[in-house]
Amino acid sequence: MSTQIRPVPSNEGPSKTIPIPANHQRKPHPRWWLSAQANVWRFLGQVGLYFHSIPTPSPKEPSFLRKFPTTVVSGQATMLHLAFYVPDGYQSQIQQGRKYPLVVNMHGGGFTLGTAKDDGRWATMVVKQVEAVFVSVEYRLAPEYPFPTAVEDGVEALLHLAANADELGLNPHKMALTGFSAGGNMAFTMPLRLRTHIQSTRNEYQSKPMEASQSNGTDRTLSGPPLPEIVSIIAWYPSLDNRLTRDERRASCVRPGKTLPPILTSLFDESYLPELENRMSPYASPAAATDADLTAAIPEGVAMYLCEWDMLLQEGEVFAERLKGLGKRVHLVIIKEKRHGFDKSPYPFSVDPEATLHYTEACTILKDALFDS
């Protein structure tokens, strides 16, 4: 049984609960049919990513894989898999006591497609330019595992990495979250869900309330295992407000014909969020979180990279302005004349120079956040 997600208060900030729109109320497809479609698209997606990996410089393969059993957040007994990308000399350095900052990444694919290796080019640049350990989470996919499985798997990974930081040579107080599309959504929903989890279980550590002054709502002084401290978020073309219909989102785009096709977006929405009321949850739609929760859970430093020809552009701009109003330092980039997922092009002859440019800038932001004393 999945953890019961608490309802969002409707009397605080601009995140009041809104009615489910009539055009969200379409008859759902059977789960077996969604699974069959997802498997076809998963295969096609991996073919595309194979071609994406051909141009030089080639993306790194994971340095090693790790799996761990978990029931901490969701109550479900399962094994989660993590793909580690580590700097040169990592093993010798951690044997000498070095503690690396950590970048935890969530891949995209509408919560339905993709693997932990999809962001290999991003991982390669982060490891080389930031000198951080990069961990990509192999979270479970919908429709086999609908909401809230993905976000809870992400929180499980954060807790596991923090609890095993000494063994892995990590600094649990210097963590950043990155993610693409659905993974960008989780870069914001995971801190919200993590904060709720810690609040609900803090008596396991000690009885005093959480320190509201902590940047992401956690307290490094709690007894027991170390807790993750998130100091930065880098979100690439994230999905932030699933309360909106796809028709509304497409209508907001300057080039609706350049957006993801309905056959894909319908699959994503029906697979991960079959219960329409869950689209109102802050763990599915971070834009639905209260101002108080965003202030407490989201770190001070946030960077968002949005695409001009993307149906998610407008909600990203609105969310960025809201975070700025809450006192967050938001670095917002709108990448002109680019579609959603522009950096994952299957073109096999060269790497998109704009992707390299923005990856490099984002690495500088990460390095500043993770090594700021």
TrEMBL record:
Compositionally biased intervals (Polar residues): 201-221
Region (Disordered): 1-24, 201-223
Coiled coil: none
UniProt-recorded Gene Ontology molecular function terms: hydrolase activity
Domain Alpha/beta hydrolase fold-3 intervals: 103-342
Protein name as catalogued: Alpha/beta hydrolase fold-3 domain-containing protein
Taxonomic classification: Eukaryota, Fungi, Dikarya, Ascomycota, Pezizomycotina
